[in-house]
Amino acid sequence: MAGERSSTSTSTVQMTTARYAGDRSREVDAAMIEHHRDEWPQLACVTERCDCLVHAVHKAPTETTAGRSAHFARNATSVHADCCHLGTTRQVEILEKMSGGELKAVGKHRDPLRGDVFLHRIPVPAAFDETPEQRPGQPPEVTPLTFARQIVPILNTAVKIAKLYQRYSDSDVDPHMEFQAECSGQPVEWPNFFYTRNRAIWFARRIRTAQKARTKLDPNMSPAQHRVSPLTHPVAVMFHIDRAPVESQYGKGEGWARGRLPVPADHDVPDEWVFIEGPLERLKTMFADAGTVRDSLYLGFGMWTVSKPTPRYPFGRLTLDVSAHHTSVCPISGDITKRVRTHWAAGRCDPETPLIRRELDQSP
Ligand SMILES: [Zn+2]
Question: Which of 46, 167, 268, 276 is least surrounded by Cβ atoms within 10 Å, i.e. has the fewest?
Fold first, then answer.
């Protein structure tokens, strides 16, 4: 049956590097496997603080396009440490627990190149808050307090999922699992739901394109209409701020905080900014630590917009209005490995992730 734990426990990550079990500094590469044949000493996992024993697996004949290149795999009798991202089954268990059981396995799909890929989905509450009239049969509006209680564990889990994706990408490993958010019953592929700071410019571009199309349809759009997000589901975006909250010149008690996003040299917009807007006092509480914690990262969740162009910001700014319903901004906690944090905080951009929507295979 789709969704059973057994669907994930059989998956084994193919590792491209390993090390001598007795010597953490002696790493070996999968490219060496074919030359070495079976003359290896006992090998182990390369992840810091993991002593899981692994073995070399030779290249398989390529009868299908899948083929199998030489790699290292976990010994059947050994397990990865809890902190090791290569223990995918354990990582999913930790995520399920963290999400209060909200994260669920929902089956697998077969990728011609990658083989079986296991799918996990996490439901996001109040996803279509901005358009309640389009949700017949939905429960009544969620109060801000209920919403906060629901969303915080979901966002914490989302950050943990993002960390895992980053670690797999950094170690060039395919975990054979993917995550989705579920917004009002609709699956949303992870790259469309969660943007790390290094991908956020692609999100700004996506909104800008949608807003341009909308303005074309209605050239007389009012500023209020312009502030309605073109998104069909809320999105989580990571950012850090380089300007602590200040009072807005437009409204008493209103304010904004600002952060710059990394942009590649040939990007179509020279500067990309994140603006968090709303009641000044609320912003001050939200960003109380800003400036004292180096590289403090935040996650903003909600229906983002790109603001109307101004002379100072001729391409508009990626904006989240925290006075809107069902919006959340929270600091990203410190338990991120140094390498992942450095990547997220750095000025480097990641390429946009190509998005392929796949048919879900619900077979056993
Ligand atoms: Zn390990």
Answer: 268
